[in-house]
Amino acid sequence: MNKIIFFLAFFITNDALSQIEIDWFKLRDVYYKSEYKEEIGGYFQTPYFGEGVESLDNEYVKITGYMLTLAPDAGVFVLSQNPYADCFFCGYGGPESAIELTLKPGYDDFYMDELVEVVGILRLKREDVSSGVYLMDDAVATRK
Asked: Which of 24, 47, 71, 79 has its CB surrounded by the most CB atoms within 10 Å?
């Protein structure tokens, strides 16, 4: 019995320690450069990330923000630095102030603008930024 408790405690503690807690200020370290792309026959805004953000690519991170339930039945959720009325496409911030979420099953029952903490694998999106520059896979969201 003690071995099982130790085993579970080790993995719960180890998992919690492996997360990198980040904030929205850190994610601002991105700039865009207009580059010509043959395949689209025009210019495209390519994101370039600072060293601090680059080091987060494919890492297990934790961040707090507002849940945007854009199409919950289709699994379209976004974590935003700001509530919906203040999000980047409404006036404040930019694409770096939102993270596209792929939530694990069972973690999709949220209201618009609900304050949540999300843990998952952060990925930097360099090519197709039509929907943002940050993605989070295997995300688990909890209410604050």
From this structure: 79
